[in-house]
Design goal:
Layout lengths: L6 H10 L1 E5 L13 H4 L4 H5 L12 H11 L3 E7 L25 H12 L2 E7 L6 H4 L1 H4 L3 H18 L3 E7 L22 H11 L4 E4 L12 E4 L20 E6 L16 H13 L2 E7 L9 H17 L7 E2 L8 E6 L2 E6 L6 E4 L9 E3 L8 E5 L2 E5 L10 E5 L1
Parallel strand pairs: 1-2, 1-8, 2-3, 3-4, 4-5, 6-7, 7-8
Antiparallel strand pairs: 9-10, 10-11, 11-16, 12-15, 13-16, 14-15
Helix pairs in contact: 4-5, 4-11, 8-9, 10-11
This protein binds alpha-D-glucopyranose.
Length: 409
């Protein structure tokens, strides 16, 4: 039988509720997000020249991890190798890697060290698809076989699982079973199976507490521990590729802070703090973690505006985190404009909309003893509406600017 994550690993992950996703690589130099090699039709020899330029002199692993910690994010998932095939760590399995760029350093080793100092866990994004590797893309020309690519992919996962301490997440991308291939993207086609059972077993053996997610937008396979959603909350499908079926697994929702994953020079559509807080509360209310992406600049910095937004979310969490961390999907019917989470037998109501001064609860299985605001510990006045319903008065001057959290006891 295929292994899964350990129960401790899974509950740590679910309790964490909030992580930082980082898309950073050669593509960051061009400032046109991580698909630029494909979208701008850059031939391999041209794109490879970026490796001679990569020198993010302002990269400071400690600063990244402090930003995540200040935001209240408990883990960081960083691109180890994206579709462009460039390894962002010192792999022994390729010369096309960051330590051969002018930068020379291994940023992932530096991140692993900073993470352990700040109590933030580390995880990796791994691309299954590779637009550069000869055994993926150029088998006819190179005489290599699909087995050579599999050896590389599985070998890299082995390196990542053994060289950077305890990991929280392995996040795979680039196998989209429902994506249509045409002559434009025919080179995305894999040469065979990725041999997931062996890949996942290796991870669960080497890193028993790490969760495995594969961004396939399809029913999770044995060995995958989560169901993932991309740019949408469960039930929504604005992205067009998210499934609306829930498979009963823990959930992780990845989202961008603006509209792109990798650094995108012209993208000014940064989400407001209110929207970020609401996404976090909504994710938690359906039993999901929010993996919120930043795309550092070619110099190696998380854009200042994004840092500011993250820190402000962190301040909201410092006031209201009791309703997020350690929580599971809410079981109370959410009042209008609200979402609910639960921690053991405690229910939390996250008031997202400022539509009136009372929150009217119904469908409570037990009588309410007390209701208090998490941030200020203020007890709320209440009035019974029916045997299972109650109205809580929310003093307007006690509202949180982003979301007011009420604990029911
Ligand atoms: C999509 C994109 C990829 C990105 C990922 C993050 O799969 O192809 O570039 O890394 O989403 O969710």
């Amino acid at each position: 039988m295929t292994r899964q994550v350990s129960p401790q690993g899974l509950s740590w992950f679910q309790d964490a509720r909030f992580g930082m996703f980082v898309h950073w690589g050669l593509y960051s130099i061009l400032g046109k997000q991580e698909w630029v090699m494909h979208t701008d039709r850059i031939p391999v020899p041209e794109y490879e020249k970026l490796a001679l330029q990569f020198n993010p002199t302002k990269f400071d692993a400690d600063a990244w991890v402090r930003t995540a910690a200040d935001a209240g994010q408990k883990y960081i998932v960083v691109t180890s190798r994206h579709h462009d095939g460039f390894s962002m760590y010192d792999t022994a399995l390729s010369e096309y890697k960051v330590t051969n760029s002018p930068f020379r350093r291994d940023p992932i080793a530096e991140l692993a060290k900073a993470c352990s100092q700040h109590g933030v866990k580390l995880g990796f994004y791994v691309s299954l698809l590779d637009w550069h590797h000869p055994a993926y893309r150029f088998r006819a020309e190179s005489g290599l076989a699909w087995a050579d690519y599999l050896g590389f992919l599985h070998g890299q996962v082995h390196e990542l699982c053994t060289q950077y301490g305890e990991l929280a997440v392995l996040w795979f991308d680039g196998d989209w079973p429902h994506a249509a291939l045409n002559e434009d993207n025919a080179y995305f086609l894999a040469g065979g199976s990725f041999e997931y059972p062996a890949l996942y077993d290796k991870i669960h053996e080497l890193q028993p507490h790490a969760v495995v997610e594969n961004n396939r937008h399809a029913e999770p396979l044995p060995g995958e521990d989560l169901q993932g959603f991309e740019q949408d909350l469960p039930g929504e499908n604005t992205a067009g590729f998210n499934t609306t079926t829930l498979y009963g697994l823990p959930i992780q929702i990845c989202m961008t802070l603006n509209d792109h994953w990798g650094w995108s020079r012209h993208d000014r559509n940064t989400k407001s703090v209110q929207r970020l807080v609401h996404l976090l509360a909504k994710s938690a209310s359906v039993g999901g973690n929010l993996l919120l992406n930043v795309g550092p600049t070619p110099e190696g910095e998380i854009p200042t505006l994004h840092q500011e937004r993250l820190r402000e979310v962190g301040r909201w969490l410092a006031r209201n985190g009791a309703g997020i961390y350690g929580s599971r999907a809410g079981t109370l019917p959410p009042p209008r404009g609200c979402v609910c989470t639960r921690r053991g037998d405690r229910h939390f109501v996250h008031v997202l909309d400022n539509i009136s001064d009372c929150v009217q609860l119904s469908g409570m299985s037990e009588p309410l003893q007390q209701a208090r605001l998490v941030a200020s510990n203020t007890l709320l006045e209440r009035e019974s509406l029916s045997p299972d319903g109650v109205s809580l008065y929310l003093p307007p001057d006690r509202r949180d600017p982003y979301a007011t959290v009420i604990e029911l006891m």
